Amino acid sequence: MASFITFEGIEGCGKTTQLKLLAGLLEKHGHQVVTTREPGGCPIADKVRTILLDAENRAMVPLAELLLYAAARAQHVAEIVRPALTAGKIVLCDRFTDATMAYQGFGRGLDPETIATLNRLAIGQLWPELTILLDCPVEIGLSRAIARIDNSQGAREERFELEARQFHQRVRDGYLQLAAQEPARFVRIDGGQDVQQVASAISSAVLARIGQGNR
Length: 215
Ligand code: TMP
Hints:
- By secondary structure, the protein is of the alpha/beta class.
- It has eight helices and five strands, in the order E-H-E-H-H-E-H-H-E-H-H-E-H.
- 56% of the residues lie in helices and 13% in strands.
- It has a five-stranded parallel sheet with strand order 2-3-1-4-5, sandwiched between helices.
- The longest helix is centred in the middle third of the chain and has 25 residues, at 62-86.
- The chain is globular.
């Protein structure tokens, strides 16, 4: 049965690890699962991701950033998310429209109406049914994210990790506000717990929504 589930949270909240664990569990339950992420998820959107996250692009103005997220999203929804859902698959997406509201809206201070309009335009009514918000204190998230940068030898993607602590606090508070506004869609889980505890909280929430599987 098709289902669209998104994962959200500040840097270092653990959502990427948890998304993979959930995908494995759902597959064991007989579901067909597509895992993807934003910004990115398909070749054109991945190119936009490279521009967005490049630490050298400090001069990028907030409006240009917002429009690039929207452009990447339109391509990703058309190429990956919509076809997978049409084919009856479960789509697990690492960040989606709420990230734009949290980062560009609450974080950068851009107009929420403009963001909502662009989100609608980019996704064409394809809203997630369930959003897992992995919430954790900024200090914990950022220390994990910075450790990851220090250990990585790949492409430099740290533009957002290097933002001021207050920026990340606004993003976290923004996510909590979004979750409070839509309690039926959001499930808030404490991302400061250990990996197995978080995984089991997520699997209970998701299996309760989508049932135990197709087998
Ligand atoms: P990631 O680190 O989870 O892959 O996300 C990449 C960065 O992009 C992260 O710092 C959050 C940021 N982002 C936004 O600012 N707005 C958005 O709409 C999305 C999808 C991500």
